[in-house]
Amino acid sequence: MRWTTIVPAVAMAALVLTFGREINGVLVVVDALILAAAVLAAVHHAEVIAHKVGEPFGSLVLAVAVTVIEVALIISVMISSGPKGATLARDTAFSAMMICCTGIVGACLLTTALRHRTAVFNAEGTGGMLATVAALVTLTMVLPTLTTSAHGPKFSGAQLAFAAVASLTLYGLFVLTQTVRHRDYFLPVTDDGGIVEDDHAEPPSAKETKTSLLLLLISLVSVVGLAKVESPVIERGVQNAGLPHAVVGVVIALLVLLPETLAAVRAARRDRTQTALNLALGSATASIGLTIPAIALASIWVKGPLELGLGPTQIALLVLTVVVSALTIVPGRATLLQGGLHLVIFAAFIFLTISP
Fold first, then answer.
1. Angstrom distance (rounded) from CA 283 to CA 8
2. Domain residue ranges in the chain
3. Contact 226/34 with Cβ under 8 angstroms?
4. Cα four-point dihedral sign 230, 295, 134, 272
5. What angle do CA 54, 57, 60 make, to 5 degrees?
6. For residue range 28-52, what is the model confidence (pLDDT) as tens digits?
7. What distance in Å separates the CA atoms of residue 256 and residue 225, rounded to the nearest whole number?
8. Per-residue pLDDT reduced to its tens digit, 148-162
9. What's the N-to-C CA distance of the chain in angstroms?
């Protein structure tokens, strides 16, 4: 029995014992440690499945799984936060986009550049992912600030329905392009532009893959549940520290994207920059393309305002991120400079969220 088999069972047991209870003191620390271990176990089992199905299908496994966690957390915290939860979906989705496009991308480019001097990737596939992310965030989180049908940075009912359908359509087109029509655009490449197929190691057996799928599901359920148990502690901590409520969205996004971050950095260490970017930008696409429609549907039952419109500072950071990302992607290769640029923008996002 390996730790990756034991941890999901321990995490599920911890969830059963603490769910619906208000925890404090030592239990908060213990639950947080089990939560972190469950995240690491989820990464391992997702990588096993990804190895079995190959790229780029493997990158979708973790992206969709992470989005399930994100939606569950947003809805649960929105219900418990009352009026303060009106902007939580916006804050979390925008935070996920910024973390993916600046934090994870920057860390991966920096890791590869430090170990292999230059990070090489396919500009056609990566550029398509960035364009999809830019379109999604503009249609769902910039336009509500500019529209006039509803008062404040909100969509009217019809506008929200259109944004949800448009998001699902764009995500569907992205998945079709990545997995069927132009799969080769999303495969790792060599310095001379050749495609690297997934033949570097023997794939796991069907039995091992099925076991990892089951343990991945258990890990994800445990992560969602334990994060829900920890969320009141996070909200109290943010409030007691005198920080803006938007910090809660950042913490949720950081938590749910931890598996993606670890998997992407591991890929970057193996000089598989394209796989790392597939994970980062694919997660950003899923975080908006699937989260916004799910929240729009949930708003039918979850009463209260839903504010999706970004503020001026967030829009400025978005424009800067898209421009810098486009200039990074166009050449198809990156150095320490590009990695540092993305990480500095990420640091600016974190700082301005804490001190708006």
1. 23
2. 3-354
3. yes
4. positive
5. 135
6. 888 888 888 887 887 788 778 877 7
7. 12
8. 888 888 888 899 999
9. 48
